[in-house]
Amino acid sequence: MNHLKLWAPSLLVLALAACAVGPDYQAPHTAAAHLAAADAQQAKAAFDRSRFDAIWWRQFDDPIPGPVGEPVAGRHRELRVAFARLKAAR
C-alpha cells in the first residue's frame, strides 16, 4: 500500500503531461537517410568485414590477448583451417 501512495502522484502527473500535446500538433519534417554506398558492390568495397574477423580481439583495446592471440592464431592449424573456410564461404 505504501508503494501505491508513493507512485500515485507521479503517475497522475505523467498521465496529465501525456495530454499536453494538442490536436493541432504537426510532426517535424525529417529528411530521408542518404546512403552513400547504395550499390552492393560499392558497399562491399567500402567496408570489408573479413579483414576484422581474424583480429576481433583488438577491438577491445586489451593489451593481454594481442601478444598471446596473434602467435597462436598463426601457428594453430585448426584456426588457420577455420579462417580459410570462413574466407572461402564469403
UniProtKB/TrEMBL annotation:
Keywords: Signal. It comes from the Bacteria. The keyword Signal applies. Residues 1-20 form the signal peptide. The keyword rRNA-binding does not apply. This is TolC family protein. It comes from Pseudomonas brassicae.
